Amino acid sequence: MRLRTLGILLTVAVSATASITSATASASTAPPTTIKLVTHDSFAVSKSVLAEFTKQTGIKVEILQAGDAGAALNQVILTKSNPIGDVFFGVDNTFLGRALDAGVFAKYSAPGLSRVPREYQLDPSHRLTPIDHGDVCINYDKRWFAAQHLAVPKTLNDLTKPAYKGRLVVENPATSSPGLAFQLATIARYGTNGWRAYWRKLRANDVKVDDGWESAYDGDFSQGANHGTYPLVVSYASSPPAAVYFSKPQPKTSPVGTMLDSCFQQVEFAGVLQGTEHAAAARKLVDFMLSARFQEDIPLQMFVFPARDGTKLPAVFTRFADVAASPLTLPAADIGAHRDAWIEQWTNTVLR
């Protein structure tokens, strides 16, 4: 009887050990969670940075680029009943009201917000987390103006003068976030009763309108990739360090300057999409986007400033980035309430 009992016990023990081993093997070979980050076409991050996130958390990130910021936001709004991703990055303060009104983001207060200055925390409901900031400004080609012996315009009013006729290219605010930011800059400067008169002057001065930043900066700007014919373009205060960084060899001074009188502050946010099946993993990604590792990667990937206070900037940024002392701003609530009407008015004033 003892031998039979011992045999039964050994059989049970072996069976249990095999089950545990099998379960452990299955757990170790289970595929990691994969989440989708929906964003605009200008989003960029180093592969090593995302690899570090995966190493830390076991979560893989697929990036789904969905056009300009406005177009990408439209997609997540239209698909909110069946989300196309788990996290969205690229809402800026020009679309903040629309994004919140659409109800596509889940509430989440990231611990890293304690390191973000209050001026960038524009969503008191904590559905959108500030990740970066930058100023949309008019850039100019220093070499072109020097060769023409023409003074660089210093103010928005200067752009309406005959000396700069046919020299400025802007983006359509209906299709471009920097285009919208520049329109808002003119509203902030000239008021709701005066901005259309200003744009009528720009139209009379042969301002060129492109659909997006790439066609304006890379295509038409004289310092862009295609060496266009326009020495003035709506772009960013961080265009000067970008012009240095991507030049071979790198010049000692940037060939691009910034009209600091024209700058409008832009803040970009990330948020967990409502209805995601991976809410915990999505929150971890938002946390990581505010980490020192991700924030230090931002300047040379997207050429904007990190939102996290105290983040170390690369030397090319500290040397060449232009910073407006008091960039133009408008309350997010005002933008949300009037944006569509302002865009329609701009279209009727400038394009028709």
Structure description:
With 352 residues, this protein is of the alpha/beta class. It folds into two domains: 33-133 and 267-319, D-Maltodextrin-Binding Protein, domain 2, CATH 3.40.190.10; 135-266 and 320-350, D-Maltodextrin-Binding Protein, domain 2 (3-Layer(aba) Sandwich), CATH 3.40.190. It has 13 helices and nine strands. It has helices at 2-29, 47-57, 69-78, 96-101, 142-148, 177-190, 195-204, 213-220, 239-245, 279-289, 292-302, 315-320, 332-350, and strands at residues 33-39, 59-65, 87-92, 129-141, 168-171, 208-210, 232-236, 256-272, 305-306. Strands 1, 2, 3, 4, 5, 6, 7, 8 and 9 form a nine-stranded mixed beta sheet that branches. Helix 6 crosses helix 7. It is globular and about 60 Å long. It starts with a helix and ends with a helix. The model is unreliable at 1-28 (pLDDT under 50).
